[in-house]
Amino acid sequence: MDVLQLRYLVAVVDAGSLSRAAEVLRISQPALSQRMNQLERELGVQLLDRGPRGVRPTRAGTDFYRDAHRLVRQFDELAASAAAEHPVRGLVAVGLPSGAAVHLAAPLFGWAREHVPGVRLELFESMSGYVDELFDHGRTDLAIRYVDPLDPAARAVAAGTGRAGEALLYDEELLLVGDPPEPTRDPDRVTLAELAAIPVVAPGTRSSLRQQLERAMRREERTLRVVADVESLSTMLRIARSGGACAVVPASTAADSAADGLAVRRTDPALRRTAVLRTAATTSAPHDAVAAVRSGVTTLTRELARSGRWPGIELREDPS
Amino acid sequence: MDVLQLRYLVAVVDAGSLSRAAEVLRISQPALSQRMNQLERELGVQLLDRGPRGVRPTRAGTDFYRDAHRLVRQFDELAASAAAEHPVRGLVAVGLPSGAAVHLAAPLFGWAREHVPGVRLELFESMSGYVDELFDHGRTDLAIRYVDPLDPAARAVAAGTGRAGEALLYDEELLLVGDPPEPTRDPDRVTLAELAAIPVVAPGTRSSLRQQLERAMRREERTLRVVADVESLSTMLRIARSGGACAVVPASTAADSAADGLAVRRTDPALRRTAVLRTAATTSAPHDAVAAVRSGVTTLTRELARSGRWPGIELREDPS
DNA sequence: ACCGCGGCATAACCCCTGCTTATCGACAGG
DNA sequence: CCTGTCGATAAGCAGGGGTTATGCCGCGGT
């Protein structure tokens, strides 16, 4: 028997139905069904009456519910009080480039409120170039940085052999969205040669995405045909949707807009980038607070990616 | 956080050392070390001071210990009271052939005392033929039966397609122990032709082992040269050890005696048997008590086999 | 002073458990 | 009678908690 089973039972009795309780608990109905059956089997007592309109606790179930409820509460109190023993406090500055901020910012604040209420977060969301700059000037304690796997200088980091303070987070591909004036030979792929002929809207030159794009084109002795420099990914998408130009955006952004009926093409050769979480070596923020937030970022990234709430990215394992 | 971690912490503080606590908890020291580190990480508090002579709780650890101790106790009380709600009681008769009884009898009594204190066990340990007979006459509620995988009638059971009430437990091989008068061509294998020339001691004709042996020999148009009919496996081994004759015994028995320097040979073709757990369809014992003991037998068999305390057997999966 | 040893941490691996999706059976209501 | 809702079952996958093997450190014995 496990405290989790007690939580589940409490939820079931409260909800009056396995299905609804499963929803509340954010797990599937069969999982809950199994767990409840297991609990009853372990105890050797029937706790629930399964009716066609839901479940109701039996006599034994009601008694058990009371105790379980109380125990779960005490359990949580213990955890809370232990955590309160040595509160993590401080002001942690985090730099997030737009693509990451879209998916990470809100969950990160939520996570912080829940897990480290004593920590105040200061979020700098802007184009990756500025984010890097802020970090290099010691203005942020943590920052996500994009790295081109082809860039030799960044190779070490992407390979996981970089210096401490840089942990791999995820990879993602850069995709072309919108319909080009001429159809591409492969409807799912656009070569860089073809790309050179397509009018695109791109972020400013301080963005790592822009730089990576330009570098890739230069490598093929082509140039990018930029018809508009814009600041935000959403603006890029809006323009692409209007048909005025195509846009090259990270896969996670493209995944959101694919549902809108926008055509999406991979590039050939594929352009990818690696997201790295940097931790400042010297910082004014309390060490433990920074560490906590860092682990929050990696944990959240994993959770979001796995649960499908951050589509288009591929996790890179690098526990640190 | 989990109640198990709380139990572990309590044990650690009580023992004053991870190693010793691990021993008490019957887990390995690294496992405990990991769990404690995880607990501290989750709580964000250091609970233990690691010294070279063991560990001592920190200030926070001491407080935490008290609460954890209390919670664990309440937790167990809840489980106990819920189980007491609907106590399993009754008299369950179990038939075990000698080979199985050697390894299973004592653990089974221990398990029953712990998990179903209201159940009284009646154990019939004897040669497999009698065990079968007792079961067929309704004198036992559960019984282990040996099945020859080559016997067509038993084929269905061994294949897992038998009727309900018969669950696969394990397979084991029959081995020749002791040194035959003439060395065999293959020192690790004895053909049935060679076996016919070897004086062996065998259990009585009511034993399934004996019957299986005779059947196998007859199939090759040979006869077994039995120089002594004995009742117990241990007597057979004693005679084999004295050098008077060889003995054919199940692998689990042979494994015990291999350490005594007795030569062990597989037969060629290999003789194997399958152990099946039978459950009486109609019985006077309470249904739930029988079910509990049945699950105890399967669980124990698995545990013993996996932990190496029942060597020589190969588990068959057949959850039921 | 050295070496040995008790004790905790780390690494690499494995299996079991608990979750998932997919599907079914059963009962109530239109 | 059909349909929608709820719970149970099946089969597959992932992660956590366990294992063994090994490393590192500080103490004590001779």
Description of the molecule:
The structure is a homodimer of 320-residue chains. Chain A has 320 residues and is α/β, with parallel strands linked by helices. Chain A has three domains: 3-85, Arc Repressor Mutant, subunit A (Orthogonal Bundle); 90-170 and 275-315, Periplasmic binding protein-like II (D-Maltodextrin-Binding Protein, domain 2), CATH 3.40.190.10; 173-272, D-Maltodextrin-Binding Protein, domain 2 (3-Layer(aba) Sandwich), CATH 3.40.190.290. Helices cover 48% and strands 24% of the residues of chain A. Chain A is built from twelve helices and twelve strands. In chain A, the strands form two sheets. In chain A, strands 3, 4, 5, 6, 7, 8, 9, 10, 11 and 12 form a ten-stranded mixed β-sheet that branches. In chain A, strands 1-2 form a two-stranded antiparallel ribbon. In chain A, helix 9 (208-219) links the parallel strand 8 (200-203) and strand 9 (226-230). In chain A, helix 1 crosses helix 2 (18-25) and helix 5 (98-115) crosses helix 12. The radius of gyration of chain A is 25 Å and the shape is globular. The two termini of chain A are 33 Å apart. Chain A binds chain B through residues 1-4, 43-46, 60, 63-64, 67-68, 71, 74-75, 78-79, 81-83, 85-86, 88, 288, 292, and chain B through 1-4, 43-46, 60, 63-64, 67-68, 71, 74-75, 78-79, 81-83, 85-86, 88, 288, 292. The first copy, chain A, binds a DNA duplex (30 and 30 nucleotides) through residues 4, 17-19, 27-31, 33-35, 37-38, 50-55, 306.
